[in-house]
Amino acid sequence: MQVIATGRKYTALITRINHVAKRTRSGANRLIDSYCAECGFTDEETNEKYLYNSAYTLYNLKGTEGSTVTVYVNPDDRSNCFVDLTTITENNYDGR
Fold first, then answer.
1. In a domain, 68, yes or no
2. Is residue 72 part of a domain?
3. What is the DSSP string of 7-24?
4. To bridge 35 with a disulfide, which of 1, 55, 61, 89 should be the other Cys (CB 3.0-4.6 Å)?
């Protein structure tokens, strides 16, 4: 992803986990759970607060609130970002 290579790197705090359950196909009884991390940080240079959402993933993120993640942000277009869920710290999270 271009934003990882050229964007500014921030450390953000996960404040909320959003959960969605969707059916696998029309009429099926099986549900697929997906999760999204809402995270925020304050830019130390501008003192502005930013809130970003990760992409939805099948990885269960419940229990990661309070952990930190790395967020890459395009400085020319702050809506272009990438929340790197692989950088979740182990604060209050046991991987289940």
1. yes
2. yes
3. SEEEEEEEEEEEEEEEES
4. 61
CA distance 49 to 87: 21
Other C-beta atoms lying within 10 Å of the C-beta of residue 2 = 10
pLDDT tens track for 36-72: 999 999 988 889 999 999 999 999 999 999 999 999 9
Range(s) of the domain holding residue 23: 2-87
Neighbouring-strand partners of residue 38: 16, 53
Amino acid letter, 27: G
| Tokens describing residue 2 | 């271009």
Cβ atoms of residues 40 and 12 within 8 Å: yes
Q: Return d(Cα 80, Cα 64) in angstroms, integer.
A: 23
Interstrand relation of 68-74 and 77-84 (parallel, antiparallel or unpaired): antiparallel
In a domain, 61, yes or no: yes
Domain count, the chain: 1
